[in-house]
Design goal:
Largest sheet: 3 strands, antiparallel
Shape: elongated
Number of domains: 2
Order of helices and strands: HHHEHHEEHHH
Bound molecules: iron/sulfur cluster
Oligomer: single chain
Helix content: 40-55%
Distance between the termini: 26 Å
Mean pLDDT: 94
Strand content: under 5%
Number of helices: 8
Radius of gyration: 18 Å
Length: about 180
């Protein structure tokens, strides 16, 4: 079994920059390809990703991105913290650019502990639970999300890279 990777932000940025020229167009246009057995391929590949990547050594999504908070998330987390819904919103949240969704005011997320673990793990937002969505049931519809997220998330970059290798038969670095 491969040792899980330690996360090094500089090395990850360099890797992303090197691979995005090939992986960006690949994931953007993946819906135009005929892929046999996509569901099985996605399930198997995402299992391969998690054999290599350990989120507790990374937490880059909690540092660089923000989850969206649904009304149910706000109620659940506020209750967990013994706060009113309104106090929770005032203290931690703001509306996104479109004015539609509640997001964190600051990055890193205020709930990220010094040990890289989520301090509200049991009640964390639904968005955090599903992230990075690499096994999503409507996988092709997520291609735009993957294209954006692979800049920040090693698991997403690895997923797209492995899918590229399995579908095209080429290695990204030796194409
Ligand atoms: S709520 Fe927890 S899992 Fe979600 S971004 Fe914040 S620290 Fe990360
Ligand atoms: S989901 Fe991605 S960015 Fe977040 S901790 Fe896991 S590998 Fe890192």
């Amino acid at each position: 079994m491969k040792k899980k990777q330690d996360f090094n932000i500089k090395a990850f940025h360099a890797e992303y920059k090197k691979k995005k020229k090939i992986l960006g167009p690949f994931i953007k246009n993946i819906h135009r390809r005929k892929i046999k057995g996509l569901r099985t391929l996605v399930n198997k590949t995402s299992n391969d990703v998690w054999k290599e990547i350990d989120c507790t050594r990374c937490a880059n999504c909690c540092k660089k991105m923000t989850p969206t908070f649904t009304q149910a998330d706000i109620k659940r987390v506020a209750t967990y913290l013994n706060m009113s819904r309104q106090d929770f919103i005032t203290k931690y949240l703001e509306k996104d650019e479109d004015g539609m969704a509640w997001i964190n005011k600051k990055r890193p997320c205020q709930f990220l502990g010094k040990d890289n673990l989520c301090t509200i793990y049991e009640v964390r937002p639904y968005d955090c639970k599903g992230f990075p969505h690499i096994k999503h049931s409507r996988w092709l519809d997520q291609r735009g999300v993957f294209e954006t997220n692979m800049e920040y998330c090693p698991a997403t970059l690895k997923m797209v890279e492995l899918m590229f290798e399995k579908i095209t038969g080429h290695s990204v670095t030796h194409k």
